[in-house]
Amino acid sequence: MIHTEHRDDFGAKMGMWLFIFTELLLFGGLFIVYAVYRSQYPDDFHIAASQLNTFIGTINTIVLLVSSMTVAMSITAIQKGNKKLAMSLIAITIIFALVFMVNKYFEWGAKVHHGIYPGSELMLTLKRGELLFFSLYYFMTGLHALHIIVGMIILIVAFVKVKNSKINNSDYVLLENGGLYWHLVDLIWIFLFPLLYLIS
Amino acid sequence: MELAQPGQDFLSAQSYNAVFTVHGVIMIFLVVIPGLAAVFGNLFMPIMIGARDVSFPKLNLFSFYIYMFGAVLAVISLFIGKGAPDTGWTFYAPYSTQSGSNVIAAVLAAFVLGFSSILTGLNFIVTIHRLRAPGMTWFKMPLFPWSLYATAWIQLLATPIVGITLLMLVAERLFKIGFFDPNLGGDPILFQHLFWIYSHPAVYVMILPAMGVITEIIPTFAKRKVFGYKAIALSSVAIAAVGYLVWGHHMYTAGMSGTARWFFSFLTFIVAVPSAIKVFNWISTMYKGSISLEPPFYFAMAFIFNFMIGGLTGLILGSLATDIHVHDTAFVVAHFHYIIFGGMGFAFLAALHYWFPKIYGRMYNHKMANWSCVTIFVGFTVLYFPQFIVGLQGMPRRYFDYLPQFQTGHFISAIGAFILGIGFVLVFMNLVRSAKTGKIAESNPWGGLTLEWQIASPPTVENFDEIPVITEGPYEYK
Amino acid sequence: MTMNKHHITDYKTYGWVLAILLFLTALTVYITWFDLKALTIAAALVIASVKVTIVLTYFMHLKYDSLVLRLMVAMVFLLIALVFVLTFFDYLFR
Known about the structure:
The structure holds 3 protein chains of 3 kinds. Chain A has one domain: Cytochrome c oxidase, subunit III, four-helix bundle (Four Helix Bundle (Hemerythrin (Met), subunit A)), CATH 1.20.120.80. By secondary structure, chain A is an all-alpha fold. The model of chain A is unreliable at about 1-5 (pLDDT under 50). Chain A is elongated, with a radius of gyration of 20 Å. Chain A is built from 7 helices and no strands. Chain B is an all-alpha fold. Chain B has helices at about 15-50, 55-80, 95-100, 105-130, 145-175, 190-220, 230-245, 260-285, 295-320, 320-325, 330-360, 365-395, 405-435; strands at about 360-365, 440. By secondary structure, chain C is an all-alpha fold. Chain C is flat, with a radius of gyration of 18 Å. The chains are: A mainly alpha, B mainly alpha, C mainly alpha. The interface of A and C includes residues 32, 35 and 69 of A.
């Protein structure tokens, strides 16, 4: 601790966790809104939820779970000093993220095609509870997708740094933090998936 | 002041709405929330725990930039679009989703400022966890960092909720989503819930560092070990924890269920306990101390006095029956100004006078500082005390006009406002002049024992030539 | 500075964790084919919570991290739960 320039990996990790807490609470607020409206309009939510595509939702869940594993494995790889494997594992994770976004694009596209999107004519004629459900659906998945994009950017940065050996087997806290962020995205989806797609 | 005389004087009703909204937004989000914690916290917390800097200095700089950005956005919201926001600082839905004025810019400003506040909180928590000097255990840490630690957790855990709420409000205005609009199935009371989940804890973001400052000043000037160190430290944490859960007491009359109301009322009374513990400990610290009467000490005394009034009237508001009588009256206005201004404001001035010689290495004029303290205290009391009375008589808040029977009170208040203004001019003149030409101060003018007094004034770039090793608790006056 | 010594999880563990998570996903989809009435939400939430716990412990390394972090995480989840409870004190008894 005498040196001026000291590195505090654990501090950095703690900072990342604290940031994750804020994200959890951000979505926590949304889940409160969801829970309240669900308890007020159980039937409408039921009907609206059954219009979502469970198949795409399940595929995306699997995609995210697998990508979570690959990013976790990439940390093991870097700890063992296996740079190539770490790089390919991060790359796979990024590709999975892209797959998720493409799925999401088709899913939203189909909904918009049917005239269900915020502010549309059809939306305003729906029952109040269904309207709320779709509003929440767009807002929650939209915000989540935004996090996926941010997560992808972080992973790309991590990829480049591994390539340049900026991240190596003695200094990999950045990759660890990127991984933590990616798991956070996964955590949120684990709750979003049953609440939006399955309860019908 | 518009309210000095009944009838419309020089502000229209619409601009009165805009003025009190902007006063609320700017004062709350720009001044009092970041004020003490960010300014004095960033300067002195690292020194007091024996660190060279905070854990993430770059993040700190970044949070300052986004704070500036948010501030600019808030000011811009005044001038662009269809006019300044007129919703009140609380942005209550559904009015905020319909008002034609410039709500989005103001809301985004609040969001950006919230982000800055989160980053500061994050930084403080990690710094306190990781960078305490060797030997400084949790219970050897001075009490100002303790209060900042509790504050930082609130900032971190409460701000995201208001963030998401404000985002939903923006989405609602942009896309006609009906989260909080009853016409579209939403529930405006839910907005109030989410809003107060943040905004009540935000009050503690203001007052906890204030308490921390006072806890530093009192033992220094009483030359006595602080009474009940652990009780004060833990009561900060207790206030933060319970304070997070009492948001409902802003909503007694909003149509909440009876069960929820008594529960929130109960929790509200619980918060009073740790607050009272602090007051008793301060007073016990002074008891039999050899008190030296210097300006920071006067400000601290004014703080305790105002805080007690503010706190006790808070109990009146916290109980269900009495709150219904005084809800949304000038009584509430007086109450929170006593806490925010009388508490946080005076603590800020106390901190300013306490650490001024450390920051600039120069001393200000004591006599003038004492007089400005008295002036501000008198002005403050004359301004806000009558508000309690007109509030009890039934004067509603946020009205730009009123019935003749409330005139005396408002007139007295207006006089108080002028005295207060003079007081601030005095402080300002004194400090600005002293920063340039004041007498050179020694490094420890008050005889304080915490670490910041052990280094040169003003502090050097990395605070310490060598990180100190701590062997005994703070405030060990012999 | 004990934290510099990191636990290295081997690949096999991650494989098993993923298998369990996928199984739970299949389970939570599978049970929606039956009508469990009021239990639907409860079942979905319980499974989701189990999955989240697994992700936190293994993928996010909480199992091998310091006690401070674990306490913080527990505290945050407790807080979210409390906020839910208090909000529903209002909505359920209105």
